[in-house]
Amino acid sequence: MSDQDLAQLRAELDGGKPPMVWFTSAAVGVQAGGSAKIVAFADTAEGDYVQVRPTGSKDVLSFSPSELTRTRPPRRRTTAKSARPTRAPEPVAAPPKPPPPPPTPPKLQPAPASTPAPAQDKPVPRRPTRAGSGAATAKSAEVVVTLTSTAAGEWTVDVMVGKKRTVRNTAVTPAEVAKAARALPSAVGDSIDAALTTARRQQQARVATLQAELEQAQRALKDLG
């Protein structure tokens, strides 16, 4: 997309109407021709700064302008051909077989002179082939999942597939983080449990402070009659 297209998309998004775009053949991880709505624009210093939500999905993915287009791809039309019943060919009677020729008497031939047996050809050893030689091997993209917590106990997750950020700052609940920690090695689970415990204590202290302020406000209200 051009700079003029991006400026128009920003104006539509600022006006409260998420604009619709479509994926080009350069988009990675999605089907070309699929549709999506733009939800935000990140810092242009990043290569993939256009954040979209694909149609039928709740995930927010990041793409570059070259992977998106405002032109809707044409729909593919398929025409069903009516199958015509084919008529089976009529059986043709086979012609009668001619009678076999009479047997011919065997001819006596002189015994051949003894000749040395021909030397057998030695098998040519085959060169061993290496497994997988000549075949292209597909390389799987590296996936990096990052969990981030704040002092208030809020958690977010980021996912990088190769060099593309597919999930950016998506909020997850502490309960989901604790559930995932139980399935991870003990060293990782202990670190996450320690962070959850610290956040829980801070929230308990905040609740106690708010309760004390509420009680003081109620007494002041009661004194005012």
What does this protein look like?
Among the domains are: 3-69, Roll (SH3 type barrels); 143-223, no CATH class. With 225 residues, the chain is of the alpha+beta class. The strands form two sheets. A five-stranded antiparallel sheet has the order 4-3-2-1-5. It contains three helices and eight strands, in the order H-E-E-E-E-E-E-E-E-H-H. Helix 2 (174-182) packs antiparallel against helix 3. Helix content is 26%, strand content 20%. Strand 2 (35-41) and strand 3 form a beta hairpin.
Please summarize what this structure is.
With 225 residues, this protein is of the alpha+beta class. It has helices at 3-14, 174-182, 186-223, and strands at residues 20-23, 35-41, 50-54, 61-63, 68-69, 143-149, 155-161, 164-172. It has a 5-stranded antiparallel beta sheet. A 3-stranded antiparallel beta sheet has the order 6-7-8.
